[in-house]
C-alpha cells in the first residue's frame, strides 16, 4: 500500500494537527493554512481512495479528525473557517469584531454573515462559532465596553488579586493569563477603552511588566505558582533540590535569603509564602 510520506515526516505533521486541535477545538484545518492544510487534504484524499493504512487512519481518528468536509456552502467548510480565522485575528488586534465595511474581503464577509443571520439563513454551526467569540450582530447597537464577558474576566482578576496580593497574573495562568496580556497589549497600542482602563487602574493593575530578572516579574511569579501548586499537593513546601527546575528555583530563593540579598519586594512576598505555610526559606 502506498505511503505518501516518510513515517517521521508524517508523525511531525500529526503533531501539528494535534496542536491545531488543542488550540481551536476541532480538526477542520482550512485549505489555506499552509503546509498543514495541504497535508490534511492529502490524508482525506488517500482515505477516499482507500489507500490510507490502518495506523494512519486511527491516529487522526483519535483526534476527532473530520474525514469528509463540507464544500464552500457547507456550515463549516474550509473557506468559511479561513475567513473566521481572519476575523479572530482582527479581534485579537483590535479588541472587537466590528470590521469596517471598507476593510476589503473581511469586511464584505462580516457583512454577509450579519445579512444571512437577519434573513434566518445563517446555519446553526456558523452562528454558534461567531456567537462564542462575541460577534456583534447589530452594528447600530451601542458598544458596551463593560459587557458581561469582560466583567466576568475582571471578576476573575479581582479574585486572583485578593488571593495573591497583586494582579501580575503569569502568562501560563490559563485563560486569565491570556486575557491580562491582551489588556496590556491594547493599552500599549492606545486601543484600550477608557472605561476598561479606569476599572483596571482602580484595581492597581500593573500595565508595564518588568523584565524576567525582576524578583516579582512574570518568570518569578510563574515559579511561585508552581511552588503553591506543590504545596497544595504535598501539604508542605520543602521542595527537594533534585526536583528539577522548581527545586533549583527554591534553592536559589533560600540561598539569597540566607545571604541577605533578597530585595524589599521579595521580603514582602515572603509574608504571602508563610501565610500559605511555606517553609522553603527556613
TrEMBL record:
Signal peptide: none annotated. Pfam families: HA. GO terms for molecular function: helicase activity. InterPro entries: Helicase_assoc. Keywords: ATP-binding, Helicase, Hydrolase, Nucleotide-binding. The keyword Methyltransferase does not apply. This is Helicase. Residues 7-65, 79-135, 148-205, 218-265 form the Helicase-associated domain. The keyword DNA-binding does not apply. Transmembrane segments: none annotated.
